[in-house]
Amino acid sequence: AAKSEDGLDFRCFDRNMRHAAEEQRELVEQLGRALARRQFEVHFQPLISLHERIVAGLEALVRWRHPVRGLLSPARFIHLAESAGFLPSIGAMVLEEACARLSEWRGLGLDPGRVAVNLSASQLRDRNLPRFVLDTTMKHGLTPDRIELEVPETVTLGRAGENAIGILSDLRSLGFSIALDDFGTGYASLTHLRRLPVDKIKIDLSFIAGMSGNAADLAIVRAMVNLGHDLGMTVLAEGIETEEQADLLVKLGCDEVQGFLFGRPMPAEGLLAWLRQRQVTEC
Ligand code: C2E
Ligand code: MG
Ligand code: MG
Ligand code: MG
User: Fold this and answer.
1) Ligand 1 neighbourhood includes 263 CB (under 6 angstroms)
2) Could you identify which of 7, 193, 199, 218 might form a hypothetical disulfide with 177, taking C-beta atoms 3.0 to 4.6 angstroms apart as the criterion?
3) What's this model's pTM, rounded to 2 decimal places?
């Protein structure tokens, strides 16, 4: 009876909504304990230098090994963790783990370059963040040029954005590099971009997905690559899944790529095996 003319079942919709709300409440409750119980894992995805096709770095990506629900992707819990105030501590753990693994792999003679760590809006409100990032880096015997900090474009907008920009400038003065994540989705103006203390832009995967069949998306990607270069930035494209996309990006002069075509995010042991395998095949 609750079906609309195009067949949508509103009762079912309502039930799903309630179900989703319950799930969210439950996850928020469990988030606090999850950290102490070591349920978060850091996976690593290779960043590839497109011209030489060598590993230029890794991106650290968090996952939640939930005792009942299995491995949860960040899409399921990051926004909940951010609004419940857990991201500063989760973020600290991710940075710690990223530095520890990078240092370990370097010690094994498998140097993957630098490691990129995502920062959230709440972390960029903390004036002590630069000190903390520097201390963590040095504790693991690394130098700041080994660490890249990724921030979404939106974090730099508005009044809170001014503070975030100040903190990013401090990090950059310490020698860390800054990448603007999900570039193209944040509605930042070009004048705004020019003011940002940023070394790299990461073109959002939604543009890459449309690039092969859609002339507008291709034009946008081309414009973003040129803009980044004209502003003196490195340009990385996210979400490369096909050789066709990789070839197009070579033609556009893109510097780095990241995507399932080259390597998925992997747990630390998987990444180590992947690095070893590459070393063998490259020799
Ligand atoms: P992001 O920083 O833009 O990370 C890239 C996302 O694209 C990752 O999703 C990665 O798995 C996915 N990806 C990479 N290559 C491909 C591809 O070829 N095809 C497709 N379809 N996807 C690809 P993931 O790991 O699910 O992370 C989602 C988002 O969660 C991240 O987007 C980032 O915004 C956030 N996130 C992840 N880890 C952290 C963290 O430690 N701290 C914070 N604050 N945010 C995080
Ligand atoms: Mg990122
Ligand atoms: Mg990204
Ligand atoms: Mg993204």
Assistant:
1) no
2) 199
3) 0.94
